[in-house]
Amino acid sequence: MQHTGRHSRRRLRRAAVAMQVVVCSTVILGMGALAIDVGKLYLARTELQRAADASALAGASAYLDNVGLIQSPELGELACERAQAFSCANWTLGTPTILDAADVVAGTLDLNDPHGALDTSGTQRFNAVQVLVRRAAGSSNGSISYSFARIFGFAEGEAEAGATAAMDDRFSSYEQTEEYGLLLPFTVHKDTYEEMLVSGPDTFSYDAVHDEVDETSDEVREVRVYPYREKKEGGGSDGAGNFGLLNVGSENQGVPALEEQIRNGIAPADLELEVGTSLLTFVDEDGSPVTYDITGSPGLKAGVEDAVVDRLGDIVAFFLYDQVTESGSNAVYRMVGMRFGRVMCIDLHGNPNDKRLVIQPVAYTGAGVIVTTNAPSSDGQVGRLRLVR
Prior knowledge:
The protein is of the alpha+beta class. It contains seven helices and 20 strands.
């Protein structure tokens, strides 16, 4: 009897252990299976965020095109197209990430409040693009199908990621280096420049495919940098010649030196010699304006025309000034800012009234541009593209 009892207890213990093994194995396998699907969900979220960041920046790049500069009604459509293209180029769980058009929003973001809502009313200049990419039921990407969590009754999951990119146009400084070669020895009065943005001619366009300038309209106003004559500070007679060509680095530069600066850009050493620095800061850390005095030369010398012709179609930088003192070869301009544009036309021969240097403004975010929170808006003309959230 005792022998039979011992065998019976052993069988009970073995049965209990077997049951525990079965239960624990089920739990362990279930947790492992669940971990696989949870990992899949986290991977999807990571890849969706990458797609959202790329598509938001791509959408915001529309502000660098002509439609962005002039705030054309086509701006939102272009932003959406670019955002969708870059979203699809970034895959999620092995397939292209589709960005629904309804999840792309262009609007105005207060850059001093980057977490604020996007204003889509159109009462302010658009500067940002907000996107939301989703793997969810009802979206073009669909939901995330689970492999093992189904044993617990979970067949699918959802994930999403959002991003907002903006054209931060609070331009404060520009650092000139040998590498960039954009800054030319030209200047135009800031008021004249602003007026021409609104009422200037619209005679030229740029064909990026063939890299050439065409005499056709493209809805972007041009700035005629030459010829202009400005009165001396405090009144008096007009200064001799044209106030638009600068002597940067030496007085009364000859044509060879000017041609060098036009073809290759003003060298940092010339800037340092003229104004003491190659880092041109127009708004300091406190938000106060900074100006630079640069001497000028009478007339836009016809000898530099060939050098300008070599830059036709190129994007260049030029100065804005607000006042000029003295006159002729003694003219001194007070520089208050910079802008960027594409060289469209140069004609320095023939009738004086027909002579012209025409530059079409562009929105610029390239190397050398520095933005700061204390600088005022440049109205989308100079800045940096960046993710703000």
